[in-house]
Design brief:
Elements (H helix, E strand, L loop, with lengths): L28 E5 L5 E6 L2 E4 H6 L19 H4 L3 H14 L13 H4 E3 L3 E4 L7 E4 L3 H11 L16 E3 L5 E3 L4 E2 L2 E4 L8 E4 L3 E2 L2 E7 L18 E8 L2 E2 H7 L13 E3 L4 E2 L7 E2 L19 E2 L2 E7 L5 E8 L7 H9 L10 E3 L14 H4 L7 E2 L5 E2 L7 E10 L2 E13 L5
Parallel strand pairs: 6-22, 8-16, 9-26
Antiparallel strand pairs: 1-2, 1-5, 2-3, 3-4, 6-7, 10-11, 12-15, 13-14, 13-22, 14-16, 14-17, 18-19, 20-21, 20-25, 23-24, 25-26
């Protein structure tokens, strides 16, 4: 067992019972305390752990990590240390804040090491160089195929043979709490009329999980399936906002463009793959059998409960979906193996997204497109209003966590409010 994952470990830090951040989690991110520079941080309960101060005060001295690594405004250089070193850091943090700690004077130094989370700005954690969005939920792909193609033959011929994906826009990935401006573009409301320019009228969310690349491969080489997870540093929640009407008009023949590249929202704490070991489960049976380079052994899916909440401008909250990451037909190892099989070089900080996560029931669908079935089944809210797609002033909140051995490990929130904009 990885030392930091020990379910018997307790901490002297007060942690709410429903917190996503027990001492067994220890995710990584970036904070900016008031009047100070950005720096790397972890989180325990409702406190940010200032890793720059932890390093400056000598708690990592024997690990031989330059202090400058913790002075960065992204965690890329930290990830580049490699999993052996980042595991040592995670284990050391667990030791320092352990209730039975006798070696490290963390209680006496807590005012220097811990900052209440409400007293810091939590920043975008990763410098994302490239971003790939996959299409790996068979329930989602089937639902979309039924709506737009053929109810009897919903999946395209290639779908069960490879994890389909497309190259997305890295520069518009933003951290939770960033407002999302309603995109403008071309749409064609009526098939027998010319297109028009204006604001998106069918704005949607997509419930996804993101993963951060933590190990590179050289251009011209591929990542073997059995080594793929060595290339994953950690995971986050991911909302791939979608302008459905813009996308519908533009996507033939080259796929998503302006309907997708205006914004994606991630949660600010990257939860290491190590921290999620207890949540491994088998994925769906793949039929037909996949090609050898995509064949996996062991449990590669993760039982992570996911929730989507719509919050109106008046403050009303409505749960739109309860889903689970375990439903994914194609897992992350297969996505990485396929991504690199042609020699594509993955780089530290690159991000992959799972694709919309939908379950088998209506209440587990991962987009408004499916929940409202292309606008034909509106969601009724408690205040008497309804939603087919998202309106200005709506805030969309993603939450996710796993539970095992009496421990809850979560991701916090990926939240964004839709605001209006006027473009030239």
């Amino acid at each position: 067992m990885i030392a930091a994952n020990n379910p018997a470990r307790k901490t002297w830090i007060e942690i709410p019972s429903d917190s996503d951040f027990p001492i067994q989690n220890i995710p990584f991110g970036v904070i900016q305390p008031v009047g100070q520079s950005p720096r790397l941080a972890s989180r325990i309960g409702d406190f940010a752990v200032d890793l720059l101060r932890v390093s400056e005060l000598g708690y990592f001295a024997d690990l031989e990590i330059p202090v400058a690594v913790f002075q960065q405004k992204e965690i890329n250089d930290f990830i580049a240390l490699g999993k052996t070193k980042t595991r040592e850091v995670r284990n050391r943090i667990a030791e320092v804040f352990d209730a039975d700690n006798k070696k490290w004077n963390s209680r006496e130094m807590q005012e220097h090491l811990l900052i209440p989370i409400e007293q810091v700005e939590v920043l975008m954690p990763v410098r994302v160089g490239d971003y790939t969005d996959f299409y790996s939920s068979i329930e989602h792909a089937t639902n979309v195929g039924k709506m737009f193609r053929d109810p009897e033959n919903a999946l395209l011929p290639n779908w069960r043979h490879m994890p389909v994906g497309y190259h997305g826009r890295a520069s518009s990935i933003v951290v939770s709490g960033t407002d999302i401006r309603r995109p403008y573009g071309q749409t064609r409301p009526n098939a027998d009329e010319p297109p028009v320019y204006g604001p998106c009228k069918l704005l949607d969310f997509e419930l996804e999980m993101g993963f951060v690349i933590g190990k590179e491969n050289t251009l011209g080489t591929s990542v073997p399936i059995q080594e793929a997870e060595d290339h994953i540093f950690g995971l986050c929640l991911f909302n791939d906002w979608s302008a459905r009407d813009i996308q519908k008009w533009e996507y033939v023949p080259l796929g998503p463009f302006l309907g997708k590249n205006f914004a994606s929202t991630i949660s600010p704490w990257i939860v290491t793959l190590d921290a999620l070991e207890a949540f491994r489960v088998n994925g769906p049976k793949q039929d037909p059998e996949v090609l050898p380079y995509l064949q996996t052994q062991g449990t590669k899916n993760f039982d992570i409960q996911l929730e989507v909440i719509l919050k109106t401008e008046s403050g009303l909250e409505h749960t739109l979906s309860n889903s689970n990451f375990k439903y994914m037909y194609w897992n992350m190892a297969q996505q990485i193996a396929h991504h690199s099989v042609n020699g594509c070089n993955l780089r530290i900080g690159d991000m992959g997204a799972s694709g919309t996560i939908s379950g088998p029931e209506v209440g587990s669908y991962g987009s408004m497109l499916e929940i409202c079935w292309q606008g034909t089944r509106p969601v009724e809210l408690a205040d008497g209003t309804e939603r087919k797609f998202l309106k200005n002033g709506d805030t969309l909140i993603l939450r996710g966590f796993g539970t095992a051995n009496g421990i809850r490990i979560g991701f916090g929130e990926a939240k964004g409010k839709i605001v209006d904009t006027i473009l030239a």
